[in-house]
Amino acid sequence: MRKVILGVAVSLDGLIEGPNGEYDWCFTDQDYGMDAFMQRIDAIFYGRKSYEVAGSYIFPSKKVYIFSNTLNHAPAGTELVQGDGIEEAKKILQQPGKDIWLFGGASLTAAFLNANLIDEIWLSIHPIILGQGKPLFEHIKERKHFTLCETKQYNTGLVSVRYKRK
Q: Beta-strand (E) ranges in the chain?
């Protein structure tokens, strides 16, 4: 079965965006493992807000799913997932293919974590404290245990860590 991989940039204080939704603090000066990661996946799960923010970063070779109960139609080249997103995600995971990148956002991440649908967490920890903004993990109903399987340190101070669900 395909895996869902939460891959996200996070600040030292656990935030995924600044107080105004900004992510200008994320390093883009080198690959940071993205090329290898992109070879592992063939689809991306976006929440509506994350899709709207990251629209210019759409990867044309990947199947894009937008989870939203407020959109009326999917933009060209994407598929809209409405209703019970967790049940729809389970159906998608049963289809043949590579792993799936859970791009975000925080609400979709919480729903997937609470349903035990996240198999891996790949954090790119940036050496900055934002002080205010949106936390990565909110509204998690119970403890979730993961095992460290990889770390990589970059000369910029960014640390990449990858965990697998126990």
A: 4-11, 15-17, 41-47, 63-67, 78-81, 99-104, 120-126, 134-135, 146-153, 159-165
